Write the structure tokens for this entry.
Amino acid sequence: MENIFKKDINRRGFLKAAATIGTAFAVSPALDKIHAAGKMVNGKTTGNKTTKSTLPHRTLGTGKAALEVSALGFGVMGMTYNRSWHPDKQQCIRLLHEAVDKGVTLFDTAIIYGPLNNEELAGEALSKFRGKINVTTKFGHEVINGKATGRQDSRPATIRRYCEESLKRLRTDAIPMFYQHRFDRNTPVEDVAGTIQDLIKEGKVLHWGMCEVNAETIRKAHSVCPLTAIQSEYHLMHREVENNGVLDTCRELGIGFVPYSPMNRGFLGGDINEYTQFDSNNDNRNTLPRFTPEAIRANYRIVNILQRFGRELGMTSAQLALGWLLQKEPWIVPIPGTTKLSHLEENLRSLDFTLSADKWQKLENEISQIPITGARYNPEQQRQVQ
């Protein structure tokens, strides 16, 4: 019973305590360098066009590829796909509107989420804010008659078709950033980049990015059409991009980085324990080795460390997990998702705290001492990652 009630104490109850701690601070020294809100997300001034509330902004990419966005984005995926039960559509729309009101300008979706219905939700909820926010989406996973095939297809003609279909679902005339969702081994990356370059010239795509690709592929793609961002999994329990050259390549080439699943699919927020049940029809965590009861039990020691640190700092474990990413580089923009207003507010409050470099290093060192139990993907899903 102790574990069952742990999440309420750790996250929601502790959030109330955190809300009483002090006033707003910058999230890290790096945030001193970022611009205040009040500029158009495509890098142009907006005059008086601002949201009701503003957040610190960061810039993904450089030069003509630069895209200014809120320092935290919002992952829309879990509102319809792969995250068990969720509120009805109108409640999801209200929450997305709350995110806009609070200053979020980067929203992330994809064709494969649903498939299709996540883009449709984003289009219905967010199209009226066009020009003030960015709704990014992704191509690459093959979808036929509304169903995923499990194959990749990034042939030029397919990219063009997916672009036209996404424009309609998102109810817009230009996609702010179009990611290749997974590398297509049957299509040269130069052909993919060339197709995107043509779509940019035509005004149908404004920026582009790639997901889960290696440093060599990033270089090849960037040489044809400058990349704005790379999106890969990155959090305290998965730090491969620090060692495989991806972050170094982004730093060298001036490409932004967007960590998806920044709280390890909710785990680092403390809401999941070994008794958590996932919807077998709409949750990929059922298929992930890291989310078996045994793995959750073993890995919960990491959450315990975050909770202990948080008690001393007036922060929740979720805020520490996001803050750790934010302090890594000023061009990193995490995209946590949620279906709850309390969690949205909690996530955005991670921007209010500052820790010394020594404290971040101490947290990182302690967590690094704990071996991670379970792979992040099963073999089939891992094969899709370059």
About this structure: The first strand starts at residue 57 and ends at 60. Confidence is low (pLDDT under 50) at residues 1-51.
